[in-house]
Amino acid sequence: MKAFRNLMLAALLVLGLVVFSLASYHSTDSTEVGVRTVKWLGKRGVEERIYQPGAAYFILPIVNQWDTFDTRLQVVEMKGAHQLTFKTRDGNDIFMDVTFSYRIDPAKAPYIRQYVARNDDELKEKVFKTVARSRTRDFFGELSTEEFTHTDARNTAAERAKTGLQKILDGYGIILERVAVMDYRFDPDYLKVITEKKIAEAKTLEVRAQIEAQREANKKLFNDADGQVMSVIASAVGRYSNTMSAADAYFDQKRMLADAILTEGTNTAQAIVKQREAMASAGGETQIQLAIATNLVGKRIIMIPSGNALNLQTLDLNKALESILRK
Question: Rounded to whole angstroms, how far apart are CA atoms 20 and 30?
């Protein structure tokens, strides 16, 4: 009986050692870091040591507490019932779906365990979501409604939100990688106003296009009419130029003819004047006689005396002229 009792005690001791050994075994995944908290014996509190990923460790139970934190990128989507609701600078309500990406700083895992959160879920739900939800609304609420509708303005606000949030999250050992707006919606009443405004703007653009088209058509008509007027003017100028050229040519022709007649008449008059001057000179009479004599050469002249007598004599003027010429 005593031997059986000793055997049972030995078995319980072995079982206790096995259970104690199993309870002392801890490991970290390839993306996890471990943190030990001393509860009893020695210096109490969170140990500053960081237990690296992908390793096994023996930590005494009861007197120690073992926790792990995932270092992988975490994605938090705020949409649907968890969407962000905020007012723009000009007072309109906007409902926005936004996605955050973050990870913890492995070097700050002991700090996170001691001062921030006991595990990943608590860190996400009680710390990250609370900070991200409240501060992100502030940055996007600085935009006006018109600015929010522009992608560049939303992206700029998202970058500003990321920078602002990181300054806060640094104190919690969290690294924020990305803030992205996935979708947004306006208040139904305001959406109706926006729709009506866009329809009015579309109609305005259509009317402007029609006005511009009519302006271009009028400009074309004006250019066509101006071209026709210029063509008529050019034709009239051409006819006028041709008429003037013909008139100038006719005038020049008649002027040349008149100049020729005037020149000929002047020459004739001058010849007559010269001839009269020559006739009035001392040799003029001789020249006249000579001319008369020349004209009478070869002609017979009959002289009939006046009176009742019938005494007719014949005078040979040729001989008389010859005798005169001999002298």
Answer: 25
- Number of neighbouring beta carbons within 10 Å of residue 61: 16
Coil/strand/helix, residue 51: strand
Residue 127: partners with Cβ closer than 8 Å, 6 or more residues away: 116, 117, 172, 174
Question: What is the rounded distance in angstroms from the CA atom of residue 78 to the CA atom of residue 97?
Answer: 6
**Per-residue model confidence as pLDDT tens digits over 164-186:** 999 999 999 999 999 999 999 98
CB atoms within 10 A of CB 24: 15
- Spatial neighbors of 62 by CB under 8 A, at least 6 apart, are 39, 40
For residues 60 and 71, give the distance between their C-alpha atoms in angstroms, rounded to a whole number.
Answer: 25
DSSP per position, 269-289: HHHHHHHHHHHHSTTHHHHHH
Please count the residues of the chain: 327
Which domains are seen in the chain, by residue range? 2-69 (no CATH), 74-186 (3.30.479.30), 285-326 (no CATH)
Q: Give how far Cα 57 sits from Cα of 9, 21, 33, 109, Å.
A: 29, 11, 12, 17
* Contact indicator for 95, 184 with CB cutoff of 8 Å: yes
Is 173 within 8 Å of 111 (Cβ atoms)?
yes
Q: Hey, what amino acid is at 197?
A: K
pLDDT tens-digit readout, 237-249: 888 888 888 888 8
CA distance 52 to 44: 21
Q: Which residues contact 268 (CB under 8 A, 6 or more apart)?
A: none
Handedness of CA 10, 15, 18, 19 (dihedral sign): negative
**How many of the other CB atoms lie within 10 Å of CB of 4?**
8
pTM over 0.70: no
